[in-house]
């Protein structure tokens, strides 16, 4: 009798241990989920917040701008393919000039309009796509968005994303970077409560079951159960009581949970190895590898601007106007152009807004090869992110890499100064490549 009850207590303690393990497992999972959720929330907050006092127009304008104009224009004064559009309303002639231009710039140029021809010539006579399908309201939305985005409020947003809360927008309604993460916390707390309830119910069930089963399995363990359900019960409880099996299961649980958590924590915002399927089966291996088309032919911004830019469909048409027209993949380019919408390439590399990276600085001034950062692109059938794009990655290279000072008079004085102080070659770190403000606004 005594032995039996001791046995039962002993077994119960095992049960509680098991429940404890389940609880721990849940907590770990939850911590993991929270990390991921925070990541998502941070991602959400990093996107420019809804502008102050803006109606639906600005929001819609932003979408239209991103989908139709962003590959050639920045909302700042920086030139991409076309001029930066900051202050465009003040710069362009009044009336409906802007509407006419955006709907069909070539017609306006052909009509002999003075400003239109001036802009056209000033930008190397590059043809801007026409947008006959945009309504006047659409265009007003786009212009309102450009107006909003060009104002310093946006820079305040970026600063806001960096130090989460203290972002005071100019228009009164500050960006809501705190909002989403608070919501997530709430949802997570609710989830935790539900999970604990489930755990409690499980505990009760397990206790009741074990009470019902224990006399059979402990006392007359050798007794042959007569009914199927009894046999099942004994079988189950035997399996359940097998210490080796049980510890294996528990350890497996723990290991998986730990691995998930660690991966989650390290993987925040890192997209190394990310290689999404693109809407058109475009291959760098074929174009840049086999046909040796220069990277700069398509990524026109890399030498002269911040962004390398993704080519617009009309660059593809320079060749595919005649090459392989019948291919279904090439037909997708035609459809996009006919429907006057851009090809929706999926972005592979993406730094958070709080970090500033400039292609021209690295490719043109620094003479760093594309492949140093992007890997052997000319061998990629599908584009893949090869570098982690973390702060450590940037800093590490700045510590290691010598500045390309050859034929660059700008650096002559710096080099002379540096020689006086040190025998080491001039590294990027020596010219300010480790200063926070160089990479963070
Ligand atoms: C394929 C690249 C491309 C796309 C896409 C594009 N533009 Fe342009 N845009 C240009 C170029 C290049 C110029 C300079 C004029 C020229 O060469 O025709 C220009 C000029 C302009 C100008 C006049 C700038 C000035 O300084 O006066 C405005 C306004 C403009 N674009 C608005 C838009 C809007 C709005 C969209 C999206 C609906 C858009 N563009 C899409 C290439 C583009
Ligand atoms: C014929 C045009 C063309 C040429 C030449 C070309 N690319 Fe691309 N590149 C594209 C297109 C289109 C995309 C978007 C689709 C994709 O990601 O595969 C792209 C995407 C990329 C991306 C990823 C962009 C992102 O979303 O983050 C990188 C990096 C890149 N190219 C680098 C290079 C390098 C380096 C070379 C030269 C070795 C090169 N490209 C040559 C057209 C080209
Ligand atoms: C400088 C010329 C050139 C440019 C620019 C160019 N391509 Fe190509 N592309 C080719 C050649 C050459 C082939 C191989 C055709 C063949 O296999 O006969 C090809 C093949 C392709 C194929 C494979 C078609 C098939 O069915 O085999 C796709 C898809 C493609 N290109 C997409 C694009 C896209 C998208 C762009 C614009 C970002 C682009 N190309 C720009 C020259 C070019
Ligand atoms: C020093 C490292 C480095 C070098 C060199 C470099 N890139 Fe990039 N590239 C990046 C980073 C970082 C991003 C992500 C930028 C972002 O999200 O703002 C990027 C993004 C891109 C993109 C996506 C569109 C964009 O501009 O954000 C393309 C396309 C691209 N690079 C092409 C090239 C080409 C072509 C070359 C060579 C001419 C090149 N890159 C050289 C680091 C580099
Ligand atoms: C492969 C090496 C390499 C990597 C990776 C790299 N850089 Fe650089 N970076 C350079 C070189 C070389 C220069 C010097 C260019 C020059 O001569 O002005 C430079 C210069 C800079 C500068 C200007 C510094 C100054 O004081 O003028 C900034 C800002 C910068 N890098 C940001 C970044 C960021 C952000 C990243 C990561 C996303 C990054 N870099 C990754 C090599 C690299
Ligand atoms: C060479 C460029 C560079 C320099 C210099 C630099 N950073 Fe960064 N930093 C980055 C990049 C790129 C990221 C984004 C990394 C990512 O997404 O994983 C970043 C991210 C961050 C973050 C956000 C981390 C997170 O969890 O996303 C903080 C905070 C930060 N940096 C602080 C600093 C401080 C403080 C300094 C000066 C001591 C500094 N950085 C110097 C490039 C730089």
Automatic annotation (TrEMBL):
<keyword id="KW-0408">Iron</keyword>
<dbReference type="GO" id="GO:0046872">
    <property type="term" value="F:metal ion binding"/>
</dbReference>
<keyword id="KW-1133">Transmembrane helix</keyword>
<dbReference type="Pfam" id="PF00034">
    <property type="entry name" value="Cytochrom_C"/>
</dbReference>
<keyword id="KW-0349">Heme</keyword>
<keyword id="KW-0479">Metal-binding</keyword>
<feature type="signal peptide">
    <location>
        <begin position="1"/>
        <end position="33"/>
    </location>
</feature>
<keyword id="KW-0732">Signal</keyword>
<dbReference type="GO" id="GO:0020037">
    <property type="term" value="F:heme binding"/>
</dbReference>
<dbReference type="InterPro" id="IPR009056">
    <property type="entry name" value="Cyt_c-like_dom"/>
</dbReference>
<feature type="transmembrane region" description="Helical">
    <location>
        <begin position="183"/>
        <end position="209"/>
    </location>
</feature>
<dbReference type="InterPro" id="IPR036280">
    <property type="entry name" value="Multihaem_cyt_sf"/>
</dbReference>
<protein>
    <submittedName>
        <fullName>C-type cytochrome</fullName>
    </submittedName>
</protein>
<keyword id="KW-0472">Membrane</keyword>
<dbReference type="GO" id="GO:0009055">
    <property type="term" value="F:electron transfer activity"/>
</dbReference>
<keyword id="KW-0812">Transmembrane</keyword>
<feature type="domain" description="Cytochrome c">
    <location>
        <begin position="56"/>
        <end position="150"/>
    </location>
</feature>
<dbReference type="InterPro" id="IPR036909">
    <property type="entry name" value="Cyt_c-like_dom_sf"/>
</dbReference>
